[in-house]
Every structure is written in C-alpha cells, then in structure tokens.
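Tokens in:
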C-alpha cells in the first residue's frame, strides 16, 4: 500500500518502508529535544527539572515560599505519581518542563486542592485521566521571535493567547509549548489516557478551542497561581475534531506525514479531500 503525502511544490508517494522510516526519523529528532521520565523510578528524574520549577515558581513569580523548598528545588507530593516531560536545547540546557499527574486513589488531583467542580459535572474515570501540571519555560527562552508557530502545520504563525502558561499571566515560546503538548499527547496515547485536566486562564482555553483543543470548563474561576478555571479535555473528541477540521494539525500531533490533498478539495472541504486522497493512495 502506498501513501500520498504533502510536500511543498511536488507530489510524493511513499512506500510502507518509507512511511515507517518517517516515524523513526521523527522519533530520533524528538528524543533529542523532548524526554520523559517516570516519577516512580527513583533517581531517574533530572534535578534540573525541579530547579527550573523553583526558579520560576519560587523566585520569579513568588507563587510558593522559598523557605518551604529544600535545596533550591520545587517538589511536592505528586512527583512519584507523574510523568515528567522535559525540553532541551542543542547544548543540553533544560528550557521547559511539564508533568502529567495521575494521583493515587486516595489523593485529589492538584487542581482539586484549589478549584471547585460544578455540581452537575461527573468527572471521568481516574484510570483514564491525568492533570497537566507545573508547565514552565526558562525565562531566557520566552518571547523569542524566531520561535513562532510557523513550524506547526494547520496553525497561523502567531497565536498570542496560546503563548501563556497555565495559571500565569506570562507569554511563552509558542512552538515549544505546542511541542510539549504533542509529547504529552504521545505519552497519553501510549498509556491509555483519554482525559486531561488543566487549570488555566479563560483566554488560553478559548484560543486552544479555536484550534481544535476543546477544553470544557468543569468549575468556576478560582485563585490558583492566578485567576484560572478548571477544564477537562476528551482526547478522543479532540482527535475527531482535528481529523475533520484541521487534518494538517492532526497529522502533526500524531507525528505522521500529512496526506497531500487536492487544492480545491482542501479549500472547499478538508475532510472530503482527505478521504479522496487516501482512497486514491489505497487504490495505488
């Protein structure tokens, strides 16, 4: 079976072997930038992750008291129940980190310690859920003009609102932010996670919704390192929405080549154009 893929200026058909080679190339490139560490593996999480969190949360923003954090590292009771994702520069400097928290049965989610949930909301199964938590970017890596969203197919080059970090009134490097979102999505698919909780500003949630990431509010606004609202995202619903409305971004999130669509079909009906292109590829 052959696959038709998008490439500027020409039409390309990949064999199954070439298609697999694409994934291997993407995986090697991503591993040089994004790395994940399980918190339950003692000593495996690099200390510079906790040091960066300390620099941002305790010193720069003063969200947490410095005196309560030992050794210049910001840690809490959720570290062993989390997967930590780190982004590194080419010189091996940590430039961003985030964690996906799955608490033990008796533990609340971090957002539940600060935010209420509407009475009518029934939270999804804990075994299928996690919370996006402690998303930070190094100060000297923010607001870089060269680091726009131009490298993310299906997105405009600049989306100012999405540059904000969860729970903070500060702008971040957008390409780095979306790269970490993709890495979180990769882990979630592998781990069987379907739902993401997140506490964030309304403006950020609205920007993400316009791009297909339909976070739904599950509680009122609260003071949680700033004025934020608790949200949940159904990854299955997100996948369906992106596939139908923004197949280029869908392909980028799943780290697969984007199917080449006839221009007229792409402009008039992206989903129909995608179906036709893949049908022709299968026929080949």
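Residues out:
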């Amino acid at each position: 079976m052959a696959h038709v893929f998008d490439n500027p200026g020409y039409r390309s058909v990949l064999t199954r072997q070439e298609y697999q080679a694409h994934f291997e190339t993407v995986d090697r490139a991503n591993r040089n930038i994004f790395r994940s560490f399980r918190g339950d593996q003692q000593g495996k999480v690099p200390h510079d992750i906790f040091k960066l969190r300390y620099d941002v949360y305790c010193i720069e923003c003063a969200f947490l008291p410095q005196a309560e954090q030992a050794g210049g590292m910001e840690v809490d009771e959720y570290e062993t129940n989390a997967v930590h994702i780190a982004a590194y520069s080419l010189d091996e400097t940590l430039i961003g980190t985030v964690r996906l928290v799955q608490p033990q049965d008796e533990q609340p989610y971090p957002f539940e310690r600060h935010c209420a949930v509407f009475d009518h909301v029934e939270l999804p199964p804990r075994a299928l859920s996690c919370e996006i938590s402690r998303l930070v970017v190094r100060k000297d890596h923010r607001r870089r003009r060269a680091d726009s969203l131009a490298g993310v197919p299906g997105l405009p080059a600049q989306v100012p609102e999405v540059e904000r970090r969860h729970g903070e009134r500060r702008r971040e490097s957008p390409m780095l932010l979306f790269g970490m979102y993709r890495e979180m999505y990769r882990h979630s698919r592998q781990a069987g996670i379907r739902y993401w909780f997140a506490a964030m500003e309304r403006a950020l949630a609205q920007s993400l919704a316009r791009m297909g990431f339909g976070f739904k509010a599950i509680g009122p606004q609260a003071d949680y390192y700033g004025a934020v609202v608790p949200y949940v995202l159904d990854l299955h619903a997100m996948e369906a929405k992106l596939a139908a409305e923004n197949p280029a971004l869908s392909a980028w999130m799943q780290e697969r080549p984007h199917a080449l669509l006839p221009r007229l079909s792409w402009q008039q009906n992206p989903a129909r154009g995608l179906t036709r292109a893949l049908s022709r590829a299968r026929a080949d």
